[in-house]
Amino acid sequence: MPDFPPIVVKSTILEEFAIGTLTANGTEQTVAESTALCTIEGHIDLSNMQVGDSITIREYIKHKSGGTYRLYDSAEYSDVQTKPCLHVSKLPSKYGAKITLQQTSGTYRAFDYDFFREVLA
What we know:
This protein is mainly beta. The protein is built from no helices and eight strands. Strands 1-8-3-6 form a four-stranded antiparallel sheet, with no helix packed on it. It has a four-stranded antiparallel sheet with strand order 2-7-4-5, with no helix packed on it.
């Protein structure tokens, strides 16, 4: 019989990570940030947005220990949202991942959010 390497089964744990409300102030504000090996994912509630409001959501990744965050993706949202539950899809990182929100126009609004992280057990 041939020698095969052992099969290693790892489980993952999904845990609450960053849950709360962010009140925009015109600056780029951190919604969720992890500096551990994990995958983060979550939702931002855009239901408070009104005509004339605009926000930018940015996702950042660090590629090495002690490194600098680099922009991975960004998206802009304006006015009333017909689908107000924004899903930020899985963002894996070994050294750091960060989600930010910046309101760029309109009356500053409050945004509820809930993020989770998946870590190897």
